[in-house]
Design brief:
With about 425 residues, the chain is an alpha/beta fold. It has a single domain (about 15-100, about 155-430), classed as FAD/NAD(P)-binding domain (3-Layer(bba) Sandwich). It is built from eleven helices and 20 strands. It has helices at about 25-35, 55, 70-90, 105-120, 130-140, 160-175, 215-225, 280-295, 325, 335-350, 395-410, and strands at about 15-20, 40-45, 60, 100-105, 130, 150, 155, 175-180, 185-190, 195-200, 200-210, 230-240, 250, 255-260, 265-270, 275, 300-305, 360-370, 375-380, 385-390. Strands 1, 2, 8, 9, 10, 11, 19 and 20 form an eight-stranded mixed sheet that branches. The protein binds flavin-adenine dinucleotide. The site of flavin-adenine dinucleotide has 40 residues, from helix 1, helix 2, strand 12, strand 18 and helix 11. Flavin-adenine dinucleotide (FAD) binds near residues 24, 53, 214 and 400.
């Protein structure tokens, strides 16, 4: 039975909860599932629809390979959680263990992969380097541009648009109360700690709040007087018509990255290629982000346009006002067709199996990026009871269940599964 999450007069918000989760992406939904499994009364408020934003628009890679080492313990935990979740589901979310592979076109690129492998060796994961001949055999090529690859056989992937809604159903069956079309406008305090959230449909008293608001987390916190150096970049992706199998592994190359979908087509996009719309917050946090901009200048477009006055440009409102969260229920940016045309051409050159594949759908997505490109997970010292689970920086679909579980632990006073120190909010104050 599929549960309906709409807020209606017949299905009003409860007056009280143990924990209120803000945001129905992978981080929020898995936090709600974890809390519900532990019997904690939990209400999840989503302004639009479950997984309407990043969590259904991503490529679906769930990888340990190439991760920032500070994230690796949480990622290892996250893959375990994805498998456990999959085992509990009746629907097929496309979770497969096909591995992940980063193809290297030069010795310098291969050396960078080797350096990561050397650093990651203490984590005892099954990542290894492949030779050029092994890559050719994997791709069914007889010679080609690749000198080798980084490959992790145990990495997995899933269909994002199926996965997170299915997890939400699981969370609801476990006791979480989930409300779509329910924007949280603000948090109110009593005695210096979280006392209630104010939503567009009324208040919910609670002991703790998990903010898993993706790109909306920064304006939400700024309205509470809490700065967060988080910016939003726009990324684009496409899916193709069915095409012959290249490999069961996800494949990342400079010109194009591909993942075979359960429908027999491919999700095709390009890593790191993004557009960054300049908004007022960009000026406030520009210095913090210059290293990323310098590193990616050749594949990132900067644009000053109407977004400056758009929904992410606003960061002050009262709890009795209509907020930007209600003005834009689902962030659905237009995809960059020029970029995707180029990516499709590259993909056909790299993978001849895609010669006849046609793009059948394209979409954009707004990614929440932190200056150090790892998430913020932890309680805000200045506002006890508020736990952040945000800034997943473009690789949080895979990490999501780990993020959700860690946030749930911190919000309910349980021992954290990994040391959360690297993810603390206060790191930006230093
Ligand atoms: C094109 C693309 C490709 C990607 N590929 C990958 C990949 O292959 N692997 C990977 O690991 N990651 C990938 N990512 C990143 C990944 O999708 C994100 O890191 C992850 O989905 C973030 O999840 P989230 O729950 O933090 O945020 P989101 O999924 O953005 O969810 C946040 C939710 O909070 C809601 N919300 C915000 N404010 C409020 C409020 N005040 N009240 C109520 N609701 C609110 C929003 O409506 C939204 O639904 C990709 C992202 C994109 C865009």
């Amino acid at each position: 039975m599929t549960l309906d999450f709409a807020h209606t007069a017949e299905r009003p918000l409860p007056k009280r909860a143990g924990v209120v989760v803000i945001g129905g992406g992978v981080a929020g939904v898995t936090a709600a599932l974890t809390l519900a499994d532990w019997g904690v009364p939990v209400v999840l408020c989503e302004k639009g629809r479950i997984a309407g934003e990043q969590s259904s628009r991503n490529w679906g890679w769930i990888r340990k390979q190439g991760r920032d080492l500070r994230e690796l313990p949480l990622m290892i935990e996250s893959q375990k959680l994805w498998r456990q979740i999959d085992a509990r589901l009746e629907t097929d979310i496309g979770l497969r263990e096909g591995g992940s592979t980063y193809l290297a076109e030069s010795e310098a690129e291969l050396a960078r992969h080797a350096a990561w492998l050397e650093q990651a060796k203490d984590f005892q994961i099954d990542t290894r380097l492949m030779t050029g001949a092994e890559v050719d055999a994997m791709l069914g090529r007889n010679g080609g541009p690749f000198v080798g690859a980084l490959h992790t056989p145990s990495d997995i992937y899933a269909e994002p648009s199926r996965a997170v809604p299915a997890v939400a159903q699981l969370a609801a069956a476990a006791g979480a109360e989930i409300f779509e079309g329910t924007a949280v406008r603000s948090i109110e305090t009593a005695g210096g700690r979280v006392a209630q959230v104010v939503t567009e449909h009324g208040a919910i008293a609670c002991d703790a709040v998990v903010l898993a608001g993706g790109v909306w987390s920064r304006p939400f916190l700024e309205n509470l007087g809490l700065p967060l150096p988080q910016l939003a970049v726009q990324s684009s992706a496409q899916r193709t018509s069915a095409a012959p199998l290249i490999s069961n592994s996800t494949l990342g190359a400079n010109g194009a990255s591909v993942r075979r979908r359960v429908d027999g087509g491919y999700t095709v996009a390009r890593s790191g290629a993004a557009r960054f719309d300049i908004i007022p917050a960009a000026f406030r946090h520009f210095l913090a982000f210059t290293p990323i901009l310098k590193d990616r200048w050749h594949i990132m477009k900067l644009r000053l346009g109407s977004a400056f006055f758009g929904p992410l440009g606003s960061h002050r409102w009262q709890a009795d006002e209509v907020t930007p969260f209600e003005a834009l229920r689902v962030f659905d940016p237009a995809p960059d067709h020029q970029l995707l045309d180029r990516v499709m051409r590259s993909a056909r050159t790299i993978f001849p199996q895609l010669a006849e594949a046609q793009p059948v759908e394209r979409w954009g997505g707004m990614i929440d990026v932190m200056p150090d490109e790892i998430p913020v997970i932890g309680e805000v010292g200045k506002l006890p009871g508020l736990v952040l689970a945000t800034g997943l920086s473009g690789h949080g679909f895979g990490l999501g269940p780990g993020v959700g579980q860690l946030a749930a632990q911190l919000a309910s006073g349980r021992d954290p599964v990994v040391d959360p120190h690297a993810f603390r909010y206060e790191r930006f104050a230093q």
